[in-house]
Amino acid sequence: MPDAVVAERVVKRYRAGEVEVTALRGVTFTLPERRFAALIGPSGSGKTTLLNMIGALDRPSEGRLVVLGEEVGHLSRRQAARFRAERIGFVFQDFNLIPVLTAAENVEYPLVMVQSWPAEKRRKRVAELLAAVDMTSEANKRPDQLSGGQKQRVAIARALATGAKLVLADEPTANLDGETAQRVIALMRRIRDEEGVTFLFSTHDPRIIGAVDTILRIEDGAVRMEAPKEAAHA
Ligand code: ADP
Ligand code: MG
C-alpha cells in the first residue's frame, strides 16, 4: 500500500519583491494511507502552504514531495491540474460552493468537468454522495438556503465525487460552531472508515484534535508527527 504523502526536506520560500519569506524550512514526514490526520500549528506557521503543495496547487522550492505515488513538484501545470481534479478532494474554510447551483448540482460539478459519464450514472453517484453526508432532503436547495454545517457537508460530498483517495481540508470547521464542527469531523471520519479515504486537515480547534489518529505539528517551519495522546499533553 503506497503512502498518501511522503515529504523529504521540503522547503518553501516566497518572494515578495525584495523580501524573501521562508515558510517551510525542511519538512520531512510520511503519512500512510487511510489516516485521519490533523495539521496543527499557529497562524502563519505554513499550514496552507503545505496543503497547497500536497494538492499540487504550488510547488516546493526544494525537496521531494510524493503524493499518492506521484512526485508533485515535477508535474507540469497541465499534469498538476489533472492530478488535482482526478485524485485530490479539497474542502475549504468558506465552503466554496457555487451560489447559483443547488446542492446536488454542486456535487455533480466535478463529475461534469472531469469524467465523461452519462447523465444517469452522474445522477446515481450524486445521490449516493448526498446520502453519505445526510443531505438527500436538501438536494435541491441552493447554498444560501443551507446552514454552514450543511454547506460543509455538501462540500465534502463534492470533494469525494471523482473518487479522490486523499481529501485536503484547510480549516474546514473554522466557520462552524463547536457542535456543528464536531459533527462535520465525525462525518469525515466515517467516510475514512467506510471508503478508505485519507484525510488531512488543518485546524487549531483543540476539541477536534481528540478525534484524529495522527497529528502533524508544524512549528518554526518544520513538521513533527505525533500520536494524539502526546499532543493532548503538549
Ligand atoms: P498558515 O496557513 O499556517 O496560517 P501560511 O501557509 O498561510 O500559514 O503562511 C506561512 C508563511 O508564509 C507566513 O509567513 C505567510 O505570510 C507566508 N506566505 C504565505 N503565502 C504567501 C505568498 N503567496 N507570498 C508571500 N508570503 C506568503
Ligand atoms: Mg492557513
Give a written overview of the molecule.
- 37% of the residues lie in helices and 27% in strands.
- It has eight helices and ten strands.
- Strands 6-7-8-3-9-10 form a six-stranded mixed β-sheet, sandwiched between helices. Strands 2-1-4-5 form a four-stranded antiparallel β-sheet, covered by helices on one side.
- It has a single domain, classed as P-loop containing nucleotide triphosphate hydrolases (Rossmann fold), CATH 3.40.50.300.
- It is an alpha/beta fold.
- Bound molecules: adenosine-5'-diphosphate and magnesium ion.
- The site of magnesium ion has 3 residues, from helix 1.
Unreliable spans: none
Hetero groups: adenosine-5'-diphosphate, magnesium ion
Query: Could you give me the name of the CATH homologous superfamily?
Result: P-loop containing nucleotide triphosphate hydrolases
Mean pLDDT: 92
H/E element order: EEEHEEHEHHHEHEHEEH
Radius of gyration: 18 Å
Number of folding domains?
1
CATH class reads Alpha Beta
Spatial strand sequence of the major β-sheet? 6-7-8-3-9-10
The structure class reads alpha/beta
Tell me about the largest β-sheet. 6 strands, mixed
Q: Give the CA-based shape.
A: globular
Q: Would you report the number of β strands?
A: 10
CATH topology: Rossmann fold
Q: Beta fraction of the residues?
A: 25-35%
Task: Tell me the distance between the termini.
Answer: 31 Å
CATH architecture: 3-Layer(aba) Sandwich
SSE order and pairing:
Layout: E1 5-16, E2 19-31, E3 36-40, H1 47-54, E4 62-67, E5 70-71, H2 77-87, E6 88-92, H3 103-114, H4 119-132, H5 148-160, E7 166-170, H6 178-195, E8 198-202, H7 206-209, E9 214-219, E10 222-226, H8 228-233
Parallel strand pairs: 3-8, 3-9, 6-7, 7-8
Antiparallel strand pairs: 1-2, 1-4, 4-5, 9-10
Helix pairs in contact: 3-4, 3-5, 4-5, 5-6
Bound molecules: adenosine-5'-diphosphate (ADP) and magnesium ion (MG).
